[in-house]
Amino acid sequence: MRGPDTTRARRSAFRQPSAVRPATSARPAGQASKPARRYQPEIPPSVRTAFIAAARAPLVSAEPLYRDVASHSGIRWELLAACDWMQCGARPRYSPVHGEKLGAVNPDGTCYRTRSGALEQCADELVELAQTVYQIDITMRRCLSVRELANVYAAFRWGGLLKLHRTSAMEFPYSVAGLTEQHMKMRWPNIDDPNAPDKPGGRFRMPFGAVPIVLCLNYPATV
């Protein structure tokens, strides 16, 4: 799971002025938007099997808690559930903020004694980082596209580093590992940056990333 300095790295990275660019208009003024099409998942059978075997039961059983905490930040519970699994395997005595045990004091001085408190911190970070780095408002009622979901988790894990280094979140395994056959056996982006965590260029060891988790929980992502 996540090392102790990852939160510090992503927070410092997204605050770099060059890491964030102003949002641009998605279409010319006066042009009507087309209804978003539902994304049809192409998750490989081996990834679905791995999800069902390891993650589905604990995530579904914790759904009431995810829903309650997510409602305070105005986000969908599936986004928070995927974050919990990626950070600490949704283990009941662990915090998804740093992947540490509940009650442990982190290097940055924070301490989370309840799962709900730690999950609320993650929900707030998901909202803040997605907006700051990629100008994505995940509190909106519309469903996000797969590309937007990838950006949300890229910002959560690495802050503005991918954007700063002109790297697509669709190459970021924490977000999209296992999304399709082309997203198998991925490696962390080989970025030469002192703030880069997770051994850039190293093998991504988990069988799936956050976006496949969200899709396997039946989140209605768009194209």
Task: Tell me what you see in this structure.
The longest helix has 20 residues, at 115-134. 43% of the residues are buried. The chain is globular. With 223 residues, it is an all-alpha fold. The chain has nine helices and no strands. Mean pLDDT is 89; it is low at 1-5 and 12-26.
Quick structural gist:
By secondary structure, the protein is mainly α.
How are the secondary structure elements laid out?
Blueprint: H1 6-14, H2 45-61, H3 63-73, H4 77-88, H5 115-134, H6 146-158, H7 161-164, H8 173-176, H9 210-216
Helix pairs in contact: 1-6, 3-4, 3-5, 4-5, 4-9, 5-6
Based on the model shown, name its key terms.
223 residues, single chain, disordered N terminus, 43% helix
What are the low-pLDDT stretches, counting only 5+ consecutive residues below 50? 1-5, 12-26
Find the count of extended strands (DSSP E, 2+ residues).
0
Order of helices and strands: HHHHHHHHH
**Global outline:** globular
Major sheet summary line: none
What's the rounded overall pLDDT mean? 89
With helices defined by DSSP (H or I, 4 residues minimum), what is the helix count? 9
Helix-and-strand structural type: mainly alpha
Approximate strand percentage: under 5%
Helical content (DSSP H or I, runs of 4+): 40-55%
Radius of gyration from the CA trace? Answer: 17 Å
Through-space gap between termini:
30 Å
